[in-house]
């Protein structure tokens, strides 16, 4: 059984103070895909670096911003930073690790909540990412893109779809993009294992006791090739942990 977790940390140093190491010890994933490190590699807290994982980070050039990483028990065959587009790679948004049985990506899509300029960049990222993803879907190994896509796909994935219909993260063009990704071969594994179940979210605002009231958004995904959906046996959002404003999305795959 291969256990893969995806977690937006909202700062690895802050998550460390909130019990990140304790979560790793208890949940014990084989591979952990991290987003929003908000730190340079040398700023990652020492106890995290000393855990029994191979650690790889692709940080942003801007201090305290973005950044992705992959931690894994097995040493990867290869690791690749970036997507080949300068501004995306300078923001530290994509890292890939290839293993014997599969290829794993940690993805942090831009947020468009700060204004029109960032929303345009978000859509540009999605336009570039789609052919990049399909290039790997057609590769020799199963592939999983784990991460924070900053999009809720369907009304079931957001606590108040009517009020948020014009909000970045639930715009029609963003939701259409997720449908296109799925229509062309990818699987949203968590949703496929929890088809039709409401109130399943991975992010909650820090405002208005949103998590306690479960007023959340499901914006963190495992997007996989079809064979990994077939191999998926359990999918959980570990919302009991308060490591950040996101919860780990953890899926166990039987690759035997």
TrEMBL record:
<feature type="active site" description="Proton donor/acceptor">
    <location>
        <position position="148"/>
    </location>
</feature>
<dbReference type="GO" id="GO:0046872">
    <property type="term" value="F:metal ion binding"/>
</dbReference>
<keyword id="KW-0464">Manganese</keyword>
<dbReference type="GO" id="GO:0003906">
    <property type="term" value="F:DNA-(apurinic or apyrimidinic site) endonuclease activity"/>
</dbReference>
<feature type="binding site">
    <location>
        <position position="245"/>
    </location>
    <ligand>
        <name>Mg(2+)</name>
    </ligand>
</feature>
<dbReference type="InterPro" id="IPR004808">
    <property type="entry name" value="AP_endonuc_1"/>
</dbReference>
<dbReference type="InterPro" id="IPR036691">
    <property type="entry name" value="Endo/exonu/phosph_ase_sf"/>
</dbReference>
<protein>
    <submittedName>
        <fullName>Exodeoxyribonuclease-3</fullName>
    </submittedName>
</protein>
<feature type="site" description="Interaction with DNA substrate">
    <location>
        <position position="246"/>
    </location>
</feature>
<feature type="active site">
    <location>
        <position position="108"/>
    </location>
</feature>
<feature type="site" description="Transition state stabilizer">
    <location>
        <position position="150"/>
    </location>
</feature>
<feature type="site" description="Important for catalytic activity">
    <location>
        <position position="220"/>
    </location>
</feature>
<dbReference type="GO" id="GO:0006284">
    <property type="term" value="P:base-excision repair"/>
</dbReference>
<feature type="binding site">
    <location>
        <position position="148"/>
    </location>
    <ligand>
        <name>Mg(2+)</name>
    </ligand>
</feature>
<feature type="binding site">
    <location>
        <position position="150"/>
    </location>
    <ligand>
        <name>Mg(2+)</name>
    </ligand>
</feature>
<dbReference type="GO" id="GO:0008081">
    <property type="term" value="F:phosphoric diester hydrolase activity"/>
</dbReference>
<dbReference type="InterPro" id="IPR005135">
    <property type="entry name" value="Endo/exonuclease/phosphatase"/>
</dbReference>
<comment type="similarity">
    <text>Belongs to the DNA repair enzymes AP/ExoA family.</text>
</comment>
<dbReference type="GO" id="GO:0008311">
    <property type="term" value="F:double-stranded DNA 3'-5' DNA exonuclease activity"/>
</dbReference>
<feature type="active site" description="Proton acceptor">
    <location>
        <position position="246"/>
    </location>
</feature>
<keyword id="KW-0479">Metal-binding</keyword>
<dbReference type="Pfam" id="PF03372">
    <property type="entry name" value="Exo_endo_phos"/>
</dbReference>
<feature type="binding site">
    <location>
        <position position="36"/>
    </location>
    <ligand>
        <name>Mg(2+)</name>
    </ligand>
</feature>
<keyword id="KW-0460">Magnesium</keyword>
<feature type="domain" description="Endonuclease/exonuclease/phosphatase">
    <location>
        <begin position="6"/>
        <end position="246"/>
    </location>
</feature>
<keyword id="KW-0378">Hydrolase</keyword>
<feature type="binding site">
    <location>
        <position position="246"/>
    </location>
    <ligand>
        <name>Mg(2+)</name>
    </ligand>
</feature>
<feature type="binding site">
    <location>
        <position position="8"/>
    </location>
    <ligand>
        <name>Mg(2+)</name>
    </ligand>
</feature>
């Amino acid at each position: 059984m291969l256990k893969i977790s995806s977690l937006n940390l909202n700062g690895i140093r802050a998550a460390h103070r909130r019990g990140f190491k304790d979560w790793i010890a208890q949940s014990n994933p084989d591979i952990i895909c991290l987003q929003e490190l908000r730190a340079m590699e040398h700023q990652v807290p020492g106890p995290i670096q000393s855990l029994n994982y191979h650690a790889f980070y692709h940080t942003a050039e801007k201090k305290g911003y973005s950044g992705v990483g992959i931690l894994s028990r097995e040493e990867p065959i290869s690791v690749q930073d970036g997507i080949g587009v300068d501004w995306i790679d300078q923001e530290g948004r994509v890292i890939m690790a290839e293993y014997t049985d599969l290829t794993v990506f940690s993805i942090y899509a831009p947020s468009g909540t700060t204004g029109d300029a960032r929303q345009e960049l978000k859509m540009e990222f999605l336009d570039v990412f789609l052919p990049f993803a399909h290039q790997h879907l057609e590769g020799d190994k199963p592939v999983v893109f784990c991460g924070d896509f900053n999009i809720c796909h369907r009304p079931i994935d957001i606590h108040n779809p009517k009020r948020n219909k014009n909000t970045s993260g639930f715009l029609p063009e963003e939701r259409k993009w997720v449908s296109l990704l799925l229509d062309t071969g990818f699987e949203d594994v968590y949703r496929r294992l929890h088809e039709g179940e409401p109130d399943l979210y991975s992010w909650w605002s820090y405002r208005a006791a949103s998590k306690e009231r479960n007023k959340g958004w499901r914006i963190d995904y495992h997007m996989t090739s079809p064979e990994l959906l077939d191999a998926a046996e359990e999918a959980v959002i570990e919302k009991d942990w308060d490591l950040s404003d996101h919860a780990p999305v953890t899926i166990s795959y039987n690759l035997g």
